[in-house]
Amino acid sequence: MRDRIEKRMAEIAVIGLGYIGLPTAIMFANAGFNVTGYEIRKDVVERINSGKAHIVEPDIDDLLRKVIESGKLRATSNPADIREKDVYIICVQTPLREDRTPNLTYLESAVETVAKAMKPGALIVIESTIPPLTTVRMAEFIEELTGLKPGRDFYMVHAPERVMPGRIFRELVYNSRILGGITPESAEIAERLYRSFVKGQVFRTKSTVSEVVKLMENTFRDVNIALANEFAYLAHQYGINVFEAIELANSHPRVKIHVPGIGVGGHCLPKDPHLLVWPARDDFGLIRLAREINDGMPLLAKDLLFEALRTINLPPEKAVVAVLGLAYKGDSDDTRNSPASAFVEAIVDDVAEVRTYDPFVEGTHGSLEEALRGADAVVIATDHTVFRSLDWETLGKLMRNRVLIDGRHVVEMPPEGFVFKGVGRGEY
Ligand SMILES: NC(=O)c1ccc[n+]([C@@H]2O[C@H](COP(=O)([O-])OP(=O)(O)OC[C@H]3O[C@@H](n4cnc5c(N)ncnc54)[C@H](O)[C@@H]3O)[C@@H](O)[C@H]2O)c1
């Protein structure tokens, strides 16, 4: 196996071709391996094989076209096409259920597909973010299905993905990588594989450690954002601008307060803290409370909107509200767990009409002007770069009333003629 990896002869199957799986498949194909991407969505398979990516990510179309044209990457929905590969890399989604417990059915089904296709000696990598102890459990599941002994008859590793959408191709190469093996040999073989394109540091450890590391990273960010959001609430009580206060506090050499806003979204941050504590015996209050604070932020934006409507004597049920941005983060089309959607949901039954405009997201208004024409209020819910330099004087003329709520600190100075409020802006 080591030799086949070094000579780029190892055959790789990537399971799940989404935000993580497709770029990963492209990177291994680009490094010279023959890669088969296995994906249950047939529309995605067709699109990828025609050389067009179904996700928005800088450079992805050029890179994809190159590996499709060279024949190094091919996508399929047929499990027979991934039989007896040397390496399987699982990149399926690991979302939460309604009750905030992990939904591991995609992972279990992917592992089952791999177990049916694999040969002895294969390396199985899970890149998906998973609750602690899951890799070991999946290795046992494969043993049950195949009779093959983990660590002896096949290798298994958890290689958590730590890239950020928008910078995926750079970060795949330069980020450090944690490889958690069910045995040291598993991690060592995986290191040879990832070294084919990773230039960052590679750390080998146990799979339970890598599972916890990945989840701690996102929990660290979530808890810190919750603290910043708590500060934003406080700023409203004291009539100050939290962003000024944070900038000043961050001038201290040992303080680094995060950025508050309308909420925390995406596939990862809102779920990973739940995955971290889910298998644990005891309750972990701080982590759960941070989640509650962040989930509550769209309601603060709602309060600010209604407060502003009151100042112009417009009952909410008569208000037409335009929400700018549906993606969970700037310059992305990803709407998963988006606080913008949570905000829309929070107001939709209380106002006359909600319109959404997001230049990256299909199914929203065709143009900003169209969304704002005749609107009473506009709420910025995503920090897309284009929203930072809007000409409010001209846009304001399209509106029936001029209320502007900034949920993302993209408007530095309140524009003339608007009733302006912002999350954390107790004062402008
Ligand atoms: N998106 C990110 O920025 C990011 C960053 C770090 C880690 N992660 C983690 O990576 C994992 C994947 O996330 P994603 O954003 O790429 O998800 P995604 O939803 O974009 O992609 C998953 C893909 O897997 C496919 N799939 C599901 N079950 C399958 C099966 N049994 N066989 C074949 N294909 C199957 C789905 O159709 C989908 O296309 C998650 O665990 C996530 O937490 C994501």
From TrEMBL:
Enzyme Commission (EC) number: 1.1.1.336
Taxonomic superkingdom: Archaea
GO biological processes: polysaccharide biosynthetic process
One Pfam family in the UniProt entry: UDPG_MGDP_dh_C
Protein name: UDP-N-acetyl-D-mannosamine dehydrogenase
Enzyme class: oxidoreductase
Residues in UDP-glucose/GDP-mannose dehydrogenase C-terminal domain copies: 322-413
Reactions this protein catalyses: UDP-N-acetyl-alpha-D-mannosamine + 2 NAD(+) + H2O = UDP-N-acetyl-alpha-D-mannosaminouronate + 2 NADH + 3 H(+)
SMART domains reported in the protein's UniProt record: UDPG_MGDP_dh_C
Keyword 4Fe-4S recorded: no
Transmembrane region(s): 12-33
InterPro entries documented for this protein: 6-PGluconate_DH-like_C_sf (IPR008927), NAD(P)-bd_dom_sf (IPR036291), UDP-Glc/GDP-Man (IPR017476), UDP-Glc/GDP-Man_DH_C (IPR014027), UDP-Glc/GDP-Man_DH_C_sf (IPR036220), UDP-Glc/GDP-Man_DH_dimer (IPR014026), UDP-Glc/GDP-Man_DH_N (IPR001732), UDP-sugar_DH (IPR053627)
GO MF entries: NAD binding; oxidoreductase activity, acting on the CH-CH group of donors, NAD or NADP as acceptor; UDP-N-acetyl-D-mannosamine dehydrogenase activity
Family the entry assigns: Belongs to the UDP-glucose/GDP-mannose dehydrogenase family.
NCBIfam families named among the record's database cross-references: NDP-sugDHase (TIGR03026), UDPMaNacDH_Arch (NF040825)
UniProt keyword annotations, A-Z: Membrane, NAD, Oxidoreductase, Transmembrane, Transmembrane helix
Annotated coiled-coil segments of the chain: none
